[in-house]
Design a protein that fits this description.
Elements: H1 11-14, H2 27-37, E1 45-50, E2 53-59, E3 66-72, H3 86-96, E4 99-104, H4 115-128, E5 133-143, H5 145-160, E6 167-171, H6 195-206, E7 233-238, H7 244-256, E8 261-266, H8 273-276, H9 281-297
Parallel strand pairs: 3-4, 3-5, 5-6, 6-7, 7-8
Antiparallel strand pairs: 1-2, 2-4
Helix pairs in contact: 3-9, 4-5
Length: about 300
């Protein structure tokens, strides 16, 4: 394995990161592993039931009402929990003095599209109705499939015209099921999420053959023809991420549609690099860029 292609901060761990972390056979095992990795609930985390789902809320000293962030965890639409992002959500809340709500949406394949998206919209509505939240300054964001859901949530909010998010924070989003049909991607150095995992995730979420005709843009936002009128956005992705091409294409289309979209590309970074090595310099820089973008968008 040629480790030189990876960012210097990531070379030590790159050899240990699996290419395909999930499959039908490993789904139950991965979900059990996620639950075992969940941190104990801290005093600054409140868990509330919102209909059939739960939402974790993080809050530090802040003015009332304050801006807010609805965070959506990743996991290819099939794994992951809100609790696994406690540290990141706590960081955003404490650094910016905002309310952060992280939604435990229901997962595919048991709950395919549109259930996870509707769960996120329910959480967004709940957040906007809180008396300690300024409903005009709510950002929506996530990582991987969570960022894909955030992008879809922006489309759904535009369609329903009930809540207007102020910002989209998209960390290496999972946006385009048609990537599963590509044959030109060299997977030699891809880590964290490859075509095999991608095909399983999309198949589970869509309950249909990925790449086929008739897939809703609310399921795969890259399929949306008209991106105008969406909230301004921040897009971050690694050069060695399976989603690199689809993410850059989406960011460029947002800009072409008149939606300001800041892009950050990390050379030598694979999918989920910041979660694999949260203490690495490149991960801290990635997190700092997200925090700066949020602060500017929420005028905080």
């Amino acid at each position: 394995m040629n480790l030189d292609i990876y960012h210097p901060d990531l070379r030590g761990i790159a050899r240990w990161i699996p290419r395909s972390p999930v499959s039908a056979r490993r789904l139950r095992l991965m979900r059990t592993f996620d639950r075992l990795r969940e941190p104990r609930r801290a005093k600054d985390v409140t868990v509330e039931a919102v209909g059939p789902i739960s939402v974790r809320t993080y809050r530090s000293a802040a003015t009332v009402p304050s801006p807010a962030l609805l965070w959506i965890h990743g996991g290819g639409y099939v794994i992951g929990t809100a609790a696994l992002d406690d540290a990141l959500c706590r960081h955003f809340a404490h650094e910016l003095g905002i309310v952060v709500a992280s939604v435990d949406y229901r997962l595919a394949p048991e709950h395919p599209f549109p259930t996870p998206l509707h769960d996120c919209y329910r959480a967004l509505t709940w957040l906007a109705e809180r008396p300690d939240v300024d409903a005009t300054r709510i950002a929506i964001g996530g990582a991987s499939a969570g960022a894909g859901l955030a992008a879809a949530l922006a489309l759904l909010a535009r369609e329903r015209e009930e809540i207007r998010p102020a910002f989209q924070l998209l960390a290496y989003p999972m946006l385009d099921d048609r990537t599963t049909t590509r044959t030109d991607i060299d997977e030699t150095h891809i880590r964290g999420w490859n075509k095999t995992a991608n095909r399983y995730g999309w198949q589970s979420y869509l309950n249909a053959v990925p790449g086929s005709a008739g897939i809703s843009p609310l399921a795969a936002p890259a399929r949306c023809v008209d991106l105008s009128g969406l909230p301004l956005a921040w897009m971050g992705v690694g050069k060695l991420d399976l989603f690199y091409d689809e993410d850059i294409a989406y960011a460029n289309r947002l800009t072409a549609a008149g939606v300001a979209c800041e892009q950050l590309v990390i050379d030598g970074a694979f999918h989920g690099f910041d979660l694999a090595r949260p203490g690495a310099g490149v991960s801290r820089e990635f997190r700092a860029a997200q925090t700066k973008a949020l602060a500017a968008a929420l005028a905080y």
